Amino acid sequence: MKTRYLMTAGLLALSFLGGAGEAKAANPAGDLFCREGIRDNEDLAQRIEHALSRNTQDIEGCGAKVQHFLEAFQYHIRKENIDATLNTAAELPAFIRSMEEATAQDDLWFNTDCLWTVNGRTRVKLDCEQRTLKQGERIFGLRDREGNLIVLLYSDCANPGSGEVKIVVTAQPCLKLIFPTTYQGQDVRGAYIGPRPLPGRCHSLIGAGMDEEFSAWPEECPNEYPKVLADGRTVNVTCSWREVEENSTRVMGQPMSVQNVSYSYEARAAGSNVWMLPPEALEGLPTLCWEMPDGSFIALSVSRSSFVDGTYTVTAADMEFARSRQ
Prior knowledge:
Elements: E1 5-8, E2 11-16, H1 41-53, H2 66-80, H3 92-97, E3 100-102, E4 108-118, E5 121-131, E6 139-143, E7 149-154, E8 161-166, E9 175-181, E10 187-194, E11 204-206, E12 224-228, E13 234-238, H4 241-252, E14 257-266, E15 271-277, E16 285-291, E17 297-302, E18 311-313, H5 316-324
Parallel strand pairs: 9-18
Antiparallel strand pairs: 1-2, 2-17, 3-6, 4-5, 4-8, 6-7, 9-15, 10-14, 10-16, 11-15, 12-13, 16-17
């Protein structure tokens, strides 16, 4: 895979040529702890008990290992000042069973953790995402030392988490990132690369040919796939966020990673697309990734200096410049 990095006019431009490589594009914010979720906290406690009885880290129906759950819950106990003890994996089932079911209020977002795999090693990315609850999702938690119920477990994904984030209403305008698609069916991916998750306001994505915004971040495109080009060649199409993270860290001078805002979708039409973000996104780099007709991807990370009055419009010249640096 050829890659070139450069800074120009506040725009960090990267080009990814179709080929072998790590594929993290379809869900760059991270993966679910358990693919199909769980019924409730008792269900998860039983699955972990079963794993421990077989002396294995593998949990039925889950990508997360026993150690991943232990690490995440220990972190949230400390972070939220919860009056509980959790020192070993053997204590996990009782700890999870001690949780009580909670009721969410409509104006709250929640922090959750994710699994993150780089170079074949899977780890927990703590506080990777802020989101609202899904339809019918159940939440479970424990009380802190002041008696407040802290949500620690989500049934839809079994991802641990903690805290409730009030949506902040502010007169400060949202950022607007306008970018083009050149043909229907073109793969587009986006992710916020930054030092910390974004607050839960301003977020929306309105694509060319769409009548309304996506109500939730879509993940329509596969991680990696073969594509037959017009000249008959087949290439392996990949967009790797790992290299964007590494280069963004060098440019920004602090650790940068894919945070809680990410998406992938097939363009409904050629034309202008709009990605809305809160102003806090200027602490990092909103990054876009387009599939090109030759099977390559072009990634553009837009920095603070590129926005004028809260708006930045990506031009065809920006994209062509990135392509010329392959």
